[in-house]
Write a structure and sequence with these properties.
With 318 residues, this protein is an alpha/beta fold. Helices cover 26% and strands 15% of the residues. The chain has helices at 91-102, 113-116, 126-140, 168-182, 202-218, 231-234, 244-248, 289-298; strands at 42-46, 53-60, 106-111, 145-150, 155-156, 159-160, 188-191, 226-229, 261-266, 301-306. Helix 4 (168-182) packs parallel to helix 5 (202-218). The longest helix has 17 residues, at 202-218.
Length: 318
């Protein structure tokens, strides 16, 4: 992406998923793809300075989220644990490779809510939580940041958290248990939930996020970063206009600070912002203008967790 725009969030995600093709792009940090299981590159930027500074760079190691769709329904039969000991790809070796060879320092680890608990508000499933924990620990062994991502679109089986679906307390219960489990590992970051969409009340959604933040801190994970997603699939282009930024700005830690609360945004390079089309139509820098200005004015941080395009189209390889 062009480097001429100060404070522009220049983040890239390359996505390979059962429903989306792999992608390449012109960031030199990923000049070649080493593994067929490469699913994403995620960079975080600190904004509010004279120039944006890249803070995190890495890849998603997907598999525990396979079978989850945008309704928040998860078919657990489609889960493919990305670890050799469970018959999947060697996610542990991939993370080691990217740290040593490419200097990456963050990995996003998507997982379905239903994989971790059998019902909203339930306790962690011991067997499944142990499998996911093996991936988290493989990530931590690299020295990188490890982002837990609940890949449920702010839903459980079609029903929105806190707005007709699972209660805020159910959601907080999940995060309280995960925070208690990883409170001794400050490099575990908490990605509250992937891509909320069609959320009727953003004020209520902010309260849902606040309940999760409170549960995480109460469980003892006081130094961990927490990622806050907005409406509209947390699109970077509409994060301000949708009211997501304003609503989520009210979410704070108990002491009133927001230093460890990061906004999560997504933006693809194809025509309909889905990442499913072959051609890239734009580098989408203009889509970040409103967000960048808002972040700068409010001295906040954002992370672009998903972006990309077709795997071999010349429009995506410029």
């Amino acid at each position: 992406m062009p480097s001429s725009l100060p404070n522009v969030i220049r983040l890239l995600h390359l996505w390979q998923h059962p429903y989306r093709p792999p992608s390449k792009a012109r960031l030199s940090v990923l000049s070649k793809m080493h593994f067929t299981f490469l699913v994403a590159i995620t960079l975080a930027l600190r904004v509010g300075q004279s120039l944006a500074q890249v803070a995190w760079g890495g890849v998603n190691i997907a598999g525990f989220d396979f079978g989850c769709d945008t309704t928040g329904t998860c078919d657990l039969a489609k889960v493919v644990a990305p670890l050799h000991q469970y018959g999947g790809q060697d996610g542990a070796a991939q993370m080691q490779h990217f740290v040593k060879n490419d200097g990456f320092n963050a990995f996003r680890l998507p997982v379905g809510w239903q994989f971790l608990v059998n019902q909203p508000g339930g306790t962690l499933d011991a067997g499944n939580a142990a499998k996911y924990d093996a991936l988290v620990n493989a990530c931590l062994a690299t020295g990188a940041y490890c982002i837990i991502d609940i890949h449920n679109y702010a839903r459980w089986d079609g029903h929105i958290i806190g707005q007709g679906g699972p209660s805020d307390q159910d959601f907080a219960s999940l995060w309280g248990q995960l925070a208690a489990k990883y409170k001794g590992s400050p490099k575990v970051a908490m990605g509250l939930v992937n891509e909320p969409h069609e959320i009727p009340e953003m004020g209520a959604w902010a309260k849902t996020c606040q309940s999760a933040v409170d549960a995480i801190r109460k469980a003892g994970a006081t130094q961990h970063y927490i990622l806050l997603p907005g409406n509209g699939y947390t699109s970077a282009a509409s994060f301000v206009s949708s009211g997501s930024a304003e609503a989520l700005a009210t979410v704070k830690d108990a002491d009133g600070t927001t230093d460890r609360l990061i906004f999560e945004v997504h933006k693809y390079l194809d025509a309909d912002n889905s990442g499913t089309n072959v051609d890239c139509v734009s580098d989408q820098v203009d889509s970040f203008q409103d967000l960048t200005q808002w972040l700068t004015q409010n001295k906040r941080i954002a992370l672009l967790a998903e972006t990309g395009g077709g795997s071999s189209s010349p429009s995506c390889l410029k």
